Amino acid sequence: MLLKKLTMANGVSGNEDEVRNIIIEEIKDYVDEIKTDRLGNIITIKKGKEGFPRVMLAAHMDEVGLMVKSIDDGGFIRFSLVGGIDERILVSKQVLIGKDKIPGVIGAKAIHLQEKDERNIPLKVKQLYIDIGADSKEEAEKKIKKGDYITFNSEYVRFGNNLIKAKALDDRVGCAVLIDLLKGEYDAWIYGAFTVQEEIGLRGAKVAAYNADPNFAIVFEGTLCSDITGVPEHSHITKLGKGPAISLKDSYTIFSKELNKCIYETAVENNIKIQYRQPSSGGNDAGAIHTIKEGIPCAALSVPCRYIHSPSSIMSLDDFEGCKKTAKLFLKGIKKGEYVCE
Amino acid sequence: MLKEFIRAMVETPGLSGYETKISNVVEDYFRPYSDDIVRDKLGNLIILKKGNIGDRKKIFLAAHMDEIGLMVKQIDEKGFIKFTNIGGIDQRTLLTQEVVVHGKEDLFGVIGNKPPHILSEEEKKKTVKMEDMLIDVGLHKEEVEEIVSVGDTISIMRKMINLQGDRISSKALDDRAGVAVMYECIKELNKMNHYCDVYAVATVQEEVGLRGSITSAYNIFPDIGIAIDVGFASTPELAGDDLSELGKGPAIGFGANIHPKVYEGLTKIAKEYNLPYQEEIHPGETGTDAWSIQVTQSGVATGLISIPLRYMHTSVEVVDIDDIKNAGKILANFIVSLNLVDLEEMLCY
Amino acid sequence: MFVNRINIELLKKLLMTFGPSGSEEKIRKLIKEEIEEFVDEVKVDALGNLIAVRKGKGKKIMVASHMDEIGIMVTNIDDGGFLRFTNVGGVSPFTSLYQRVVFDDGTIGTIGMEKLEEIKDLKLDKMFIDIGLSSKKEVIKRINVGDVATFCSPFVYQKDCIISKTLDDRIGCYVAIEALKELKDSPNEIYFVFTVQEEVGLRGAKTAAYGVNPDLGIAIDVTMTGDTPKADTMEVSLGKGVAIKVKDRSIVVNPAVKDFMTEVAVENDIPFQYEILDAGGTDSGSIHLSRSGVPSGVISIPCRYVHSPSEMVYISDVTNSIKLLLKILEKEEINI
């Protein structure tokens, strides 16, 4: 299953090789041109018909994770965060280190040995370390080196009401949507970009957009969803199972009203559940794309993911299907001369 | 020669946005070793050392010549000057610091402090805010106003000194030490046969937002861009943080901001030529010109070399000259190693 | 040439027309109609920037003033008909409390707040807009999630000053429009750009500058002052002349540009002051880093209470700004 393969692959920002290779294999027979640029973005082109607009579609390959900072004399590994992770989720988790996916654990002091107040104070990254079972620095260094990338060890699980739990749904779900779209046929010119380093500053998208120079762009994301007990309705951002979410505004982008209207109408006309993502802080590749050169109007269509940026994020396969379907219908529905700049 | 160049640089003022004087010093020292020197629209100094054979691969080196400093905000009724900062100045380093106010002429001044005798116990425990500090130039208000205007720059006054071994201390080694590395590199290249065109750029306005490298990298759009900046060297309160060490060689960067093949190329050369080096990991933003260069136009393969430095952004920064020399050699040899290399192939993922 | 006259009608129209960042349609239409007959070409780019050209030889100068204003965007409508919102641009919870906001369709609401232990804990997510309807069903007939509103505040012209919302930066647009109309023959090619989305990150200016690719950039925006009781140290005061920017968070103005602007001011007896802004940025922040770099400066109009519904400027500073801009654009032989 494609989504399983994608989420189980390791691709922390700056080290997207494994994910890149999977994606290239999946799409190379469906596109007219494919290349990897200087930052590691995959850039693909599906040629369209004359008079039809150039559309950039983007999803990012990278995920948040950790990086080996140092190995101490006892063989324990100190690490740094890559991308935005809530420090409090780290303790008592399993991880995989480096190309060889060496298993390790982020341990914690046994509760029996803790002072009363300790239990109420979250552990900071500086206090945490990874144990791979080595007895000494020399032993650890046989398998691990400074700079190795670390991901969470999290199985892909299907459960509940057609739900998936996995790591890196942000944004492997977007990649899965884009892969599916690239297998279709369209009159518009499609520039499919699988970007790198989104999680550390929307980096890959900036250069991919400069290269593609499209008339407009759509970004596919796995986005915030906190529709759980204890969170007031106005902070839900999106709701699980209510369909893909159209972005209105975030910290980096005010999304194109024209594109949004069209995407929304496409879903409604075809009886696909659709919702709007509540404006909030945060950002996605559109933040980098829309101010490239003379400006590129952007929309973002996202699959809601609870517990995002954790080893156990959750999404609905119904929302995933809805996202693919809406996007495909929208792209197929683009008429000649639409969105092309005068 | 190298120490003389560094001294000439660190003792010349050059605040972010006001780099004319420092760029003249840099130009003078590079001129005998380069083919062409121009300034771009922001004031970046672009030093070109042409390759011996015209295959015209472009290597871009960047080290910033601007330094942090202060700026005149107001002249009060007693002739004292209130000021703001340019770049990340630690306000705790300013009390009793000597400065130069660059008005119509240069004025010597002191950032004064209230004597401890008149301070309350509470006041003594708090940091003095920059808002509340004053520069004393020893003149009356009218006399000051004849020479100084709002917006005039103020540089920290500090002479370079030699410490033990090959270590030196001064202000602005961030990043004039990097400019010195480029100097060593260009001098080496003059004795070698290199095919690539090398653009050694002394960039401007790095301290206020990596700005000079944005426009200079756009202008040149190189195949490879390597930033040379300073990195954090370990000191007693930072022990155990696995930082680089003074004198153990320049730190070659690894992480998202660095193209893996550039990192590999630099470390390979260091090993091959037995040049000391260390490794520095960067999980995200490096806070250097490499960050701007990498996302220029349709993307540039970048590298980062950091000279270990203690007490960054104070006026008593410390580096080891050997690290500078070794960095220059690593760079020069790396550039030569690219002579017959197909960059498209090398930089492929 | 105006000395101390101001086109009150035009200014009022500019200040009161709806145009929060990302929704500048109405203000763009107004400005376009006002300037069309005075320029050779008008176009609108992909982000909505309005670009008007006065063709010529000499230097290509880009004059930028931003059309957008700060506002709020609806994030949620609860069952009781109350609207939750987020900021569009720099909006402080303290200046918004109990203010009135107006939506594009004219609906007006009051901003209220939840009960708080301490008023200093006030944040936008503890506030809501009340448009006087009591159910979600009624509200969504008129207002939906994603709709934007701006602050409501009457325009006041009193002796030598103007008090109004959105002087940031419709006063800059006004200065540009008046200069555009007054400009007879310029030795230079001038692009009058009315930018979008400045308040959310100087975004319109970035793409406009890329497209125009000018030799020189001049932004016209407001700046704060240091002349009110116990103000932050700042040597800018109302009535002391047009402010020539030295530095803010987005730009360290090229000393050659600053000196050039000073020279023009001195030559034409225009009173001026130097301005350093510790927080804040302007369109020149984006322009000067465009492509291979563009020498840029800023004409700042001193303004008190920026980003509040009651901003204040002095007429004399406005007319001096128009004069300075005009004299800069008319300058032959600009050597920067």
Q: Any overview of this molecule?
A:
The complex is a heterotrimer of chains A (342), B (349) and C (336). Chain A is an alpha+beta fold and 342 residues long. Chain A is 23% helix and 26% strand. Chain A is built from eight helices and 17 strands. Chain A has an eight-stranded mixed beta sheet with strand order 1-2-12-3-13-16-14-15, sandwiched between helices. The longest helix of chain A has 16 residues, at 317-332. Chain B is an alpha+beta fold. Chain B folds into two domains: 2-67 and 171-346, Aminopeptidase (3-Layer(aba) Sandwich), CATH 3.40.630; 69-156, Peptidase M42, domain 2 (Elongation Factor Tu (Ef-tu), domain 3), CATH 2.40.30. In chain B, α1 runs antiparallel to α5, α5 (173-189) crosses α9 and α7 (260-272) packs across α9 (321-337). Chain B is globular, with a radius of gyration of 21 Å. The model of chain B has no long low-confidence stretch (mean pLDDT 95). Chain C folds into two domains: 8-69 and 165-329, Zn peptidases (Aminopeptidase); 71-151, Peptidase M42, domain 2 (Elongation Factor Tu (Ef-tu), domain 3). An eight-stranded mixed beta sheet of chain C has the order 1-2-12-3-13-16-14-15, with helices on both faces. A six-stranded antiparallel barrel of chain C has the order 4-5-8-7-6-9. In chain C, strands 10-11-17 form a three-stranded antiparallel beta sheet. Chain C starts with 7 loop residues before the first helix and ends in a 7-residue tail after the last helix.
